[in-house]
Design brief:
The structure is a single chain. By secondary structure, this protein is α/β, with parallel strands linked by helices. The protein has two domains: about 55-205, Reverse transcriptase/Diguanylate cyclase domain (Alpha-Beta Plaits, 2-Layer Sandwich); about 215-485, EAL domain (TIM Barrel), CATH 3.20.20. Helices cover about 50% and strands about 20% of the residues. It is built from 18 helices and 17 strands. The protein has helices at about 5-45, 55-70, 85-95, 95-110, 135-150, 180-195, 205-225, 265-270, 275-295, 310, 315-325, 340-345, 350-360, 375-380, 390-395, 400-415, 430-440, 455-465; strands at about 75-85, 120-125, 125-130, 155, 160, 165-170, 200, 230-240, 245-255, 260, 300-305, 335-340, 365-370, 385-390, 420-425, 445, 455. α3 (about 85-95) packs across α4 (about 95-110) and α4 packs across α5 (about 135-150).
Length: about 475
């Protein structure tokens, strides 16, 4: 054995020791890095504010759960939960309190669910839960969540009642794993659009309904530009003389392929998708333009326009109406703002400020659909209202239903106590007319006297001095001074 061989044999243990130490260090470093990566992943997979899973982590767990469900022939469910009308909390109490509500709601969801459930924060006030089991298990969980949300939330010392809408989709019953969250969300949004505060299972029909709604909204966006809207006018009748004294403007949509689309269908869509503002603007401008045209022909008649809750919350609504009236040479008292009772009773600063501006501007204010809300004598006295309109639901049952008659009598008495005129809408029979006159109603409106007609048709009726049902137009409408019309 030569010298080099001896040196090689002596160095071998040292080399082996160095190799072992390097491998040991590598294993330790790898373990530390793996733990750090796992910790970072866990942190990134959870929402900082609520501690709930992020959507990415939730989808990863859903993928694992779906594989388990496929292998075991079991079901799993996804529930999506949204706090109803969360914007009111944010606007009314501020962002900090709204964030506290989001955290409190998350805690209630976790408390309702099984410890094995995955709970995720999807958006600001939207959540998702992944649980094992099918429709029976998920609906029981939805009931617990609904009951938990029914307990008041403490917001800045105020006990505030909130509701939530819950959509449920079951895998594999309601579709592929890739679509299950969307299907649960679709069920939840469909529920919210009809009032919310409940839970519902996904139905395949919801997809076609959503597509139909999307198409209709797209057409609605273009309807103004393409001139598909038209105003119709329904006369208001003095209850004593049975003469026409004013008219309410009612929007109509003539769709090029669908034909007539009811306001019952498109107005809620306009409110839901932020289109009610421009539509409301068009109605005000068109109603004033039509009133100006009537005036040029010698007919000076008050016109009423429905004002939405969105418009009432606009800072410049009154100034805008004043500008349109001035542009068409109309006096403020010839313009009636019809505001639903629900909107009128909103105790928001913006709404109350608009009412105050209306008072100073001299507008004629009418509280529409009265009897469906929760007005009190004190709240009515604070409003600059000149009249109340009894909701047609009470008028419709007037002849057959004693309860409806009692309600109408109470509304009339309330109006008289507040020195307000009382208008009954939806009058369709002579029996209804006679009962309303006997109860003391001041004005009537409905098919008994006239269907809603175009502005030109109403002008022709006025020029002929009567409508199809022989409701004469008051002489003072033809006077040169509108002041006579106030008699």
């Amino acid at each position: 054995m030569n010298t080099l061989q001896v040196l090689g044999l002596c160095a071998l243990p040292v080399l082996l020791w160095l190799y072992w130490r390097e491998r040991s260090t590598h294993r330790k470093t790898t373990a530390v890095m793996s733990r750090a990566l796992k910790d970072a992943t866990e942190r990134l997979g959870h929402d900082d504010r609520t501690g709930l899973l992020t959507l990415d982590m939730f989808e990863a767990k859903l993928n694992e759960a779906a594989q388990w469900a496929d292998q075991s022939a079991q079901s799993l469910s996804v529930l999506t939960v949204a706090i109803d009308n969360f914007g009111l909390i944010s606007n009314g109490f501020g962002e900090t309190s709204a964030a506290d509500v989001v955290k409190l709601a998350a805690e209630r969801l976790v408390a309702c669910a099984d410890p094995a459930a995955a709970v995720c924060k999807v958006a600001t006030a939207d959540y998702a839960l992944l649980v094992s089991g099918g429709a029976d298990a998920s609906t029981l969980l939805a009931q617990r969540i609904k009951a938990a949300f029914a307990q008041p939330f403490d917001i800045e010392g105020e006990r505030v009642n909130l509701t939530c809408s819950i959509g449920i989709a079951v895998y594999p019953l309601h579709g592929a794993q890739a679509n299950i969250i969307n299907h649960a969300t679709l069920a939840m949004r469909s529920l919210q659009s009809s009032g919310g505060a409940d839970y519902c299972l996904y139905d395949p029909k919801m997809g076609s309904q959503a597509r139909e709604e999307a198409l209709l909204v797209n057409d609605l966006r273009q309807a103004l530009q393409r001139g598909h809207f038209e105003l119709y006018f329904q006369p208001k009748i003095d209850a004593q003389s049975l003469q026409v004294t004013a008219a309410e403007a009612l929007i109509r949509w003539h769709h090029p392929t669908r034909g007539f689309v009811s306001p019952v269908v498109f107005i809620p869509l306009a409110e839901k998708y932020g289109l009610i503002g421009p539509i409301g603007t068009w109605v005000i401008e068109e109603a004033c333009r039509q009133a100006h045209g009537w005036a040029d022909s010698g007919l000076r008649m008050r016109v009423a326009v429905n004002i939405s809750g969105y418009q009432m919350r606009q800072d410049n609504l009154v100034e805008f109406i004043q500008g349109v009236l001035a542009a068409h040479g109309l006096q403020p008292q010839r313009f009636t703002c019809e505001i639903t009772e629900t909107v009128a009773m909103e105790d928001t600063q913006a709404t109350q400020l608009t009412f105050e501006k209306m008072r100073h501007a001299g507008f004629h204010v009418s509280i529409d659909d009265f009897g469906t809300g929760y007005s009190s004598l004190a709240s009515l006295q604070r409003l600059p209202a000149a009249e109340l309109k009894i909701d047609r639901a009470f008028v419709m049952d007037l002849e057959q239903n004693e309860m409806s008659r009692s309600i109408v009598k109470s509304i009339v008495q309330l109006a008289k106590a507040c020195n307000l005129r009382i208008v009954a809408e939806g009058v369709e029979t002579t029996g209804q007319r006679d009962l309303l006159v006997a109860m003391g109603c001041d004005d009537l409106q409905g098919y008994l006297f006239s269907m809603p007609v175009s502005g030109n048709e109403l002008q022709k009726m006025a020029m002929n001095r009567f409508s199809a049902n022989s409701a004469e137009f008051r002489d003072s409408l033809y006077a040169t001074s509108f002041m006579n019309d106030m008699k």
